[in-house]
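Human: I would love a firmer grasp of how sequence relates to backbone shape in proteins. Take your time, and here it is.
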Amino acid sequence: MAIRTSGLHHVTAIGENPQRNADFYLRTLGLRLVKTTVNFDVPSVYHLYYGDTAGKPGSLMTFFPWETVEAGRIGSGQATTTAFSVPTHSIGWWKQHLESAGVETTRVTNRDEEDVLGFRDPDGLELALVAHPQGDPRDPWDTPSVPAEHAVRGLHSVTMTVAREADTADLLVDGLGLRFHHQDGDRIRFAAGDGGPGALVDVRVDPSAPEGFVAGGTVHHVAWRTPDDATQKQWREELIDRGLEVTEIRDRQYFKSLYFREPGGVLLEIATDEPGFDIDEPLLELGRELKLPPWLEPTREDIQNSLPALDLPE
């Protein structure tokens, strides 16, 4: 594999109740809403992008929050935990902050020399906050509820649960250009780029885990970074040569995407870093207005009427 990803681009999950989803990720977790748009394939459903100040690749958690949706089942063939990076001194602050907001948390554990705090979002999606001992230099979004000194820096890692190790590990190394980092029991860590926060995936091997069902409270897919269109096209051909079923390249307005399943069943995406979220609204106004791609603009009125109103913080 000549092409190597530099790390995570975004994680996309499915939720219920758009207002509840926005309240949790904006007010409780203190992320920024960097784009309010719709699911391009089902435009009666929002697609909400949360991230850092500019919505940089590696900071993004996105949701399709339906008004009502069937509950999913977390299990094999899924990304089962999404972890965010926080400052080394902030885990205690976060535990108190989450519990004061009514969020049940796990006890703080130390794994791989990192402090880890687990919890779930209102739909039951498994999340974690991780403090890397060397810190995380990425700039956070500053809010009244979550000040910059404690704020989320971006994605830290994802955990994928699969029934067997070999084929998944082979795809991550030879297909995505990751490298084996270390193994701790049934958990195997792979790293991209410099191997710091935002460039990690943990593969949890559990042959007894139930098969996952993707619906409310589960991750839909995990996206990995590629720098530009040309690299993405070359990568697509290499993945097809490996015998994988790969989609055509799709225009997501703020990046371009292709999708495929790794052998363990997890849906993966290769997403371009370009062009970014400020192509259709100024950086200071990201997320404030409903943005639609050109091919949906003719039906804007119908789309807006089908979406529930959102009360967003200033």
In short: The longest helix spans residues 229-241. Residues 8-306 form a domain with the 2,3-Dihydroxybiphenyl 1,2-Dioxygenase; domain 1 fold (CATH 3.10.180.10). The chain has a mean pLDDT of 96. Residues 226 and 272 are 5 Å apart (CA to CA).
